[in-house]
Amino acid sequence: MTTLDVAGLTVHMGSVPVVSEVDFRLERGDRVGLIGESGAGKSLTALAIMGLLPGSGRATGRIELSGQEIQELPERRLARLRGATMAMVFQEPMTALDPVMRVGRQVSEVVGRHQGVGRRDARRIAVELLRTVELPEPERIARRYPHQLSGGQRQRVVLAMAMANEPELLICDEPTTALDVTVQDRMLRLISRLVEERGTALLFISHDLAVVSALCDRVLVMYGGRIVESGPVAEVFAAPRHPYTAGLLAASDLADAVPGTRLLTVPGAIPEFGAFPSGCVFRDRCDRSLPECAQLPALGTVGAERSVACHNPVPGGVIR
Amino acid sequence: MSDTPIVSAQGLVKNFRSVRALDGVDLEVARGQRFGIVGESGSGKSTLARLLLGLDRPDSGTVRIDGTLVDKNQRFVHKTAQMVFQDPMSSLDPRMRVRDIVAEPIRDDTNRVTELLDAVGLSKSVLDRYPHQFSGGQRQRIAIARALAPRPAVLVADEPVSALDVSVRAQILNLLLDLTVQFGLTLIFVSHDLSVIRHITDRVAVMRQGRIVETGPTEQIYAAAQHDYTRELLAAVPRLRYRPSRDR
């Protein structure tokens, strides 16, 4: 069953296109990583799906959530889906938490709003949810305010709120980037367990390729607002075809480099929004660019489940 | 006297109100070493870095740079050891042009500034621009050029690549490695990122709750950590499960 079907999604901030013609699909239980560096358009893609684009942002294209077209829905109806059918966890938990409300009440409000249960039942369910996200002594935690919790505990509360109504789609935007490595490790295991138990489709946004390789089955690589490569994580990371994916992998892979030696990387810097070159968005940083790269390459299939948008892809067949 | 440590600390204790940030730290960094200080938030690693440069005073204990007590001779310290921070925007004056930012610690001529910019991979066309006109990676290059201006023997870098994108992070790590060789620098590299520390340092101190729990050659610690906490940290580092083979 298809949980999320995005087709031709384009986002403008003012007159600047920041996400262009993005297509992808998540089936029930899929775990898809959306990777790329800052300015790639990852977060704006997620916000467009949630209907949470900031001020001057507007989206066009088709977004279907469990068979329902939601791109054109009025805010009043979208609000009913958020927190129920789809939910999102951000990098900074305080964006989702009210600093002056006890966390138990914040969780029980989400439960009460969408499940139509009484206050007492909502409170009981909230404590259970806090237990589900592996918070110690959930009854005590429920009475605390956000500032009385550690960063990792706060992020667990946010995850409890996101999972409260068993959404069909969970979007996580760099949920562990601000956490210490041991806390991150536990949080990733928790996300993994929760989506697996519930068959939730997961869209996981990260700049950290190692995290994505541990958590996701498929990956979408974004650059300059476009998906430049997609496919199963094992195949894309083992044999990247887009030069950007290859460069990103080389730059990320500190464990495979000889300590104290120069790392392979992508030269130059990511342009500002609206300053990407015409044609292939990556061609001004690409060491494989050809004259035809002035024409925009289509995202074409390579192998059964893979696609790449490149006129001169990195050689190497699909590794099984 | 090249066998005396270029940086040494003894019995460093530092409290912030009732919180003990450093709880008795001893440290020796040899000349030319790339020394890593790794730990999670609250471990005291940044406090230690600031004390090493005399940017803060310990409640007790001493720091020596090249044999000189840090709090006795600030001018000597500023000439000998310089620091680069995580967010270059906070250390670069937004109202100053690049030429003045880099020249400020030395009051020197354009040739020297151009030479420094060249060393960090920037052309002299940037001389008259302001910090906000640069990307994060370029700003970090400017901050490094400025730090190198007084020809320091020691460069302390506190999370210098944590705010940068992966491709730019690799560029800055390459630059720091090149500069340590080119200028014979001693590098003290503070980070929460164990993968970065493993790549860039040859000796490492692992910190937890204001103490160094383990120290030794980086390779040895990553291969066979002795302390439980170090093992726990290393086990939590996410690893790339699939990677291209290097010979392709």
Mean pLDDT of chain A: 94
Q: Classify the helix fraction of chain A into a percent range.
A: 25-40%
Largest interface comes to: A-B, 46 and 43 residues
Shape of chain B: globular
Low-confidence stretches of chain B: none
Helical content class of chain B? 25-40%
Task: Tell me what you see in this structure.
The complex is a heterodimer of chains A (320) and B (248). Chain A is α/β, with parallel strands linked by helices and 320 residues long. Chain A contains ten helices and twelve strands. The model of chain A has no long low-confidence stretch (mean pLDDT 94). In chain B, the strands form two sheets. Chain B has a six-stranded mixed sheet with strand order 6-7-8-3-9-10, sandwiched between helices. A four-stranded antiparallel sheet of chain B has the order 2-1-4-5, covered by helices on one side. The model of chain B has no long low-confidence stretch (mean pLDDT 92). The chains are: A alpha/beta (320), B alpha/beta (248). The interface between A and B is large, with 46 and 43 residues.
Topology at a glance:
The complex is a heterodimer of chains A (320) and B (248).
Chain A: E1 2-13, E2 16-27, E3 31-35, H1 42-50, E4 57-65, E5 68-69, H2 75-81, E6 86-89, H3 103-115, H4 119-132, H5 138-142, H6 151-163, E7 169-173, H7 181-198, E8 201-206, H8 209-215, E9 218-223, E10 226-232, H9 233-238, H10 243-252, E11 300-301, E12 307-308
Parallel strand pairs in A: 3-8, 3-9, 6-7, 7-8
Antiparallel strand pairs in A: 1-2, 1-4, 4-5, 9-10, 10-12, 11-12
Helix pairs in contact in A: 3-4, 3-6, 4-6, 6-7
Chain B: E1 7-16, E2 19-29, E3 34-38, H1 45-52, E4 60-65, E5 68-69, H2 74-80, E6 81-84, H3 88-91, H4 98-103, H5 110-119, H6 136-148, E7 154-158, H7 166-182, E8 186-191, H8 194-200, E9 203-208, E10 211-217, H9 218-223, H10 228-236
Parallel strand pairs in B: 3-8, 3-9, 6-7, 7-8
Antiparallel strand pairs in B: 1-2, 1-4, 4-5, 9-10
Helix pairs in contact in B: 5-6
